[in-house]
Amino acid sequence: MHGQYVFTVRVRLEPAQPSISLEPGSETTTVTVRRGAPEPGTDGWRFFRDTLWRGEVADEAHVRRLAEDWLDLPVESVSFSELQVDTAYFDAMKSAIAADLDAFNAETVSETLSKYLGSSIRVQDV
Questions:
Q1: Fewer CB atoms inside 10 A, N or C side of the chain?
Q2: Number of domains in the chain
């Protein structure tokens, strides 16, 4: 079972020593960050509920701070790309959501997935 959140993060590079400088205009770069998705039903598995809304970052300042912790670099912006899962993860996720719909303020699993992830779920078995 495998799941991961994929984000596009724009980071700012800052020299650690005063004698080092960066070419003007090259201080920022964009990277793809993959964050493992906790197994459904375990601690932290509701990350999507707490951070996303309709497939977008719900509170950019909060997610920017999270990304700074993940990368230990200053982050200028973060955008959510997708949740990549295999079939086993997706089935377990839907079961965990169904068992606790009240936590998502939703009536169905489909409503929950749409509300928080929009169409940004990719199910693929490799």
A1: C
A2: 1
The boundaries of the domain holding residue 58 are 3-13+26-123
Q: Summarize pLDDT for 102-116 with one digit per residue, the tens.
A: 999 999 999 999 999
Q: How confident is the model at residue 125 (pLDDT cuts 50, 70, 90)?
A: confident
What's CA 36's distance to the chain center, in Å? 9
Q: How far apart are CA 104 and CA 124, in angstroms?
A: 25
What single letter denotes the amino acid at residue 52? L
| Sequence-separated (6 or more) residues with CB below 8 Å from residue 15 | 21, 22
- For residues 34 and 67, what is the distance between their CA atoms, to the nearest angstrom? 11
